[in-house]
Amino acid sequence: MKRTFVSTLLTLTMLAPLALSAQTTMFKFHQDGEFASLSQSSDPNNSFSLNVSRNFSTAAGNSASLSYTGFSFAADFSSVTVTQIVGTIPSSDFTGQNTQNLALSFDTSQLDPSTSFSQSCTVDLFTFTLTCGPIPPGTIQLSFRENGAQRTRILALGEEITVGNFTTRIHQRSDNSTANVTGTIFGVTASGAATVGVNHSSTLEFVRN
What we know:
By secondary structure, the protein is mainly β.
């Protein structure tokens, strides 16, 4: 309960400031094709969620979109660091012919400030002092293998979530399946349940108000 409360309080606190205001902070991804997602709490002090999806092909070429949020608490719960990435990544980073086998190979150096938003913020939980800056360099290397243990069809999902200074709007139609995942996210071994699937004319929009 304490950790959930602190996470919620932190999220509301950290998203309010206009940190790294030079970056673009309004994106709308038209997603059509394979996607993969993973949420994990590697230990009581660290957790993250990740979603990667192929976007519509356009005359300008193919692309993929990535969203990542990670929480890391100090051992004594005196502070917490939140790392956030939202944006377009090269289509070559997300590979695989179908949902049976998908792979993500991403490096933070590939982020383009004109098509992505990223920041790392640390909050002192005693003074609520907020310090934000660029995310540290790192990589994500993941392999997803569909296992079919559970399958779900999303026929029409419409959702809007506002947290602090950010609004997320989701309109989704997709076929989903559970999957196994292996690899690392910024040096942390990936484990636990994952999801793979295919988006059908879905959209995902991020807006900083």
